[in-house]
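User: Design a sequence. Structure:
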């Protein structure tokens, strides 16, 4: 799953602290540049505690993708855009929410799953699979609203809620890459604006542009 707000570090056991540390450090500097020593230092745990919970750094990276999904899901489930009864309005409000929370330092609004998937897809099957499932799972939740919108408003042949959900994530993840290059959130705001226009034209709702 992709998200655009920093997930606050949680107090808890050593495993949870290490997962939170992995998410923070990988978003800031990437997976390869993150060492076990750095993870332990940020989490405030010993190396013994690290290897008690994880066989190696890759195992932590994969588990952190699942943790990212769990912790960030509540951000979207509790967001105000869910109050809309109309499925297309709900999706458009989701885009507005993504636009709103793309603020601050780049590391604060980019996605752990996307960052680790892009970096580790060829070096760690476990991280690749866990990170992809995070993004695909978020797309599937969007697809529920988009399928309802297709049923209500119609769409060109071959367009499905899942394909649009994945396209949404492709646009966001690509924008996060550009944001890293520019060092600011401008590409994310632009991508969301273009995506909104495309969706409104797709569903013949240009009047709302």
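Assistant: Done.
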């Amino acid at each position: 799953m992709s998200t655009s707000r920093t997930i606050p570090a949680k107090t808890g056991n050593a495993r949870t602290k290490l997962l939170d540390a992995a998410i923070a450090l990988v978003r800031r500097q990437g997976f390869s540049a993150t060492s076990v020593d750095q993870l332990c230092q940020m989490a405030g745990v010993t190396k013994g505690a690290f290897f008690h919970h994880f066989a190696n750094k890759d195992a932590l990276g994969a588990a952190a993708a699942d943790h990212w999904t769990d912790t960030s899901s509540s951000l979207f489930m509790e967001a105000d855009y869910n109050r809309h009864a109309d499925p297309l309005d709900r999706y458009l409000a989701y885009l507005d929410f993504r636009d709103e929370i793309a603020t601050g330092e780049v590391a604060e609004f980019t996605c752990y799953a996307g960052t680790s998937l892009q970096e580790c897809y060829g070096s760690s099957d476990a991280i690749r699979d866990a990170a992809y499932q995070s993004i695909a799972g978020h797309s599937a939740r969007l697809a529920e609203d988009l399928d309802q919108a297709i049923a209500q408003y119609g769409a060109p042949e071959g367009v499905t809620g899942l394909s649009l959900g994945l396209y949404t994530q492709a646009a966001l993840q690509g924008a996060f890459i550009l944001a890293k290059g520019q060092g600011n959130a401008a590409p994310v705001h632009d991508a969301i604006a273009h995506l909104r226009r495309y969706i409104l034209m797709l569903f013949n709702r240009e009047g709302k542009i």
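The chain has ten helices and no strands. Residues 125-153 form the longest helix (29 residues).
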